[in-house]
Design a protein that fits this description.
By secondary structure, the chain is mostly helical. It has one domain. It contains ten helices and no strands.
C-alpha cells in the first residue's frame, strides 16, 4: 500500500500542477504554439487537459501485478463502448466541446471503477485507498498558483506573440506552487516539505 501511495503522490505532484497551469494559461499556450487562428480550440483544449490528473493513478500496472488481466480486458471493452456513445451524444448536443466532454466523462467513470477494483483487491476502504490529505495539499497548491497565471493570461491573451507571457506565467506558476507547498503546515522544514512532495518520502529503515 505504501508503494501505491508513494507512486500516486509523485505522479500527482507533477500532473496536478501541469493540468491546473495549462488550464489557467490555455489562452496563451494555444496561440503561442499554433497562432491565434486556433483560439476557438482553447475550450476544447481545457476540457481535454482535465483528464491528465487521472494519470497520477497507476491503476493499470497495479491490476496487472495482481493478475487482473481479464478484468482489464472487460473494463477496456466497456470503456470503448461507453466512450463511443458519450462522444456521439456530446457531439450531437454540444458540438466539439460536447464530444471531448463525453470522452472525459466516460474516461473518468472507467478510472473510478478501476480504482474501486484496486480498493477491493487491496481490501481497504475509500478513506485508505489514496493519500487524500497529501493529495489535497498538492491540489490546493496547484489551484492557488493558478491565480497569477490566470491574471497574466487575461492581460496578454490578445498579444500577437504571447510566448514570453506564457513563459512568465509558467515561471510564476511554479514559484507560487512551490511556495504554497512550503508554507502549508506540516512535518519538517519548508524545504523538506517541498522535497517530500516532489520526490516522495524515504522508505523506513528495516529493523
Amino acid at each position: 500500500m505504501h508503494l501505491f501511495h508513494d507512486a500516486n503522490l509523485r505522479l500527482a505532484a507533477v500532473f496536478f500542477p501541469f493540468t491546473a497551469g495549462l488550464v489557467a494559461a490555455a489562452s496563451l499556450f494555444v496561440p503561442a504554439l499554433f497562432t491565434h487562428l486556433y483560439d476557438a480550440s482553447v475550450p476544447i483544449f481545457r476540457v481535454a487537459i482535465l483528464l491528465t490528473p487521472f494519470a497520477a493513478l497507476p491503476l493499470d500496472g497495479v491490476l496487472r501485478a495482481m493478475g487482473q488481466t481479464r478484468y482489464l480486458f472487460r473494463i477496456f471493452f466497456w470503456r470503448l463502448l461507453l466512450t463511443v456513445a458519450a462522444v456521439l451524444l456530446g457531439l450531437k448536443l454540444f458540438g466539439m466541446v460536447g464530444a471531448i466532454s463525453g470522452h472525459a466523462i466516460a474516461e473518468s467513470a472507467i478510472r473510478v471503477a478501476m480504482l474501486d477494483r484496486v480498493r477491493r483487491e487491496l481490501e481497504v476502504s475509500w478513506k485508505e485507498v489514496l493519500p487524500w490529505r497529501q493529495l489535497s495539499v498538492i491540489g490546493v497548491a496547484s489551484l492557488v498558483a493558478c491565480v497569477p497565471a490566470t491574471l497574466i493570461s487575461q492581460m496578454a491573451a490578445e498579444s500577437p506573440r504571447p510566448f514570453l507571457a506564457l513563459c512568465a506565467a509558467g515561471a510564476l506558476y511554479c514559484a507560487v506552487y512551490l511556495t504554497v507547498i512550503a508554507l502549508i503546515p506540516g512535518e519538517g522544514t519548508p524545504v523538506a516539505r517541498v522535497r517530500r512532495v516532489l520526490l516522495g518520502s524515504a522508505p523506513a529503515a528495516a529493523t
